[in-house]
């Protein structure tokens, strides 16, 4: 078994209202110096050794990410 992480983030050209809300809240909470936040999603999958990168890409594109507005990246953990 292997652990795989799929990170999904809004594409750079897509407005991220959640990230902007966080940026606005940080100074009110006493945290200064943060100029931008992009909020995404992280998925951790336990997969069999027979699951290859092509299959992981299909999982990410068809289920975990909305590829119209989100980019994704698969990382295999050791």
UniProtKB/TrEMBL annotation:
Keyword list, A-Z: ATP-binding, Cytoplasm, Ligase, Nucleotide-binding, Purine biosynthesis
GO cellular component terms attached to this protein's record: cytoplasm
EC number: 6.3.5.3
InterPro entries reported for this sequence: PurS, PurS-like_sf
Reaction it catalyzes: N(2)-formyl-N(1)-(5-phospho-beta-D-ribosyl)glycinamide + L-glutamine + ATP + H2O = 2-formamido-N(1)-(5-O-phospho-beta-D-ribosyl)acetamidine + L-glutamate + ADP + phosphate + H(+)
Enzyme class: ligase
Gene Ontology biological-process entries: 'de novo' IMP biosynthetic process
Domain of life: Bacteria
Gene Ontology molecular function terms on file: ATP binding; phosphoribosylformylglycinamidine synthase activity
Gene3D superfamilies attached to this UniProt entry: Phosphoribosylformylglycinamidine synthase subunit PurS
Pathway note: Purine metabolism; IMP biosynthesis via de novo pathway; 5-amino-1-(5-phospho-D-ribosyl)imidazole from N(2)-formyl-N(1)-(5-phospho-D-ribosyl)glycinamide: step 1/2
Location(s), subcellular: Cytoplasm
Function: Part of the phosphoribosylformylglycinamidine synthase complex involved in the purines biosynthetic pathway. Catalyzes the ATP-dependent conversion of formylglycinamide ribonucleotide (FGAR) and glutamine to yield formylglycinamidine ribonucleotide (FGAM) and glutamate. The FGAM synthase complex is composed of three subunits. PurQ produces an ammonia molecule by converting glutamine to glutamate. PurL transfers the ammonia molecule to FGAR to form FGAM in an ATP-dependent manner.
Family: Belongs to the PurS family.
Quaternary state and interactors: Part of the FGAM synthase complex composed of 1 PurL, 1 PurQ and 2 PurS subunits.
Name used for this protein in its record: Phosphoribosylformylglycinamidine synthase subunit PurS
Organism: Antrihabitans cavernicola
Gene: purS
């Amino acid at each position: 078994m292997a652990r795989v992480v799929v990170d999904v983030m809004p594409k750079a050209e897509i407005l991220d209202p959640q990230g902007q809300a966080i940026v606005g809240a940080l100074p009110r909470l006493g945290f200064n110096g943060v100029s931008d936040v992009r909020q995404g999603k992280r998925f951790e999958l336990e997969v069999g050794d027979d699951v290859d990168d092509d299959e992981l890409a299909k999982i990410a594109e068809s289920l975990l990410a909305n590829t119209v507005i989100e980019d994704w990246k698969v990382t295999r953990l050791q």
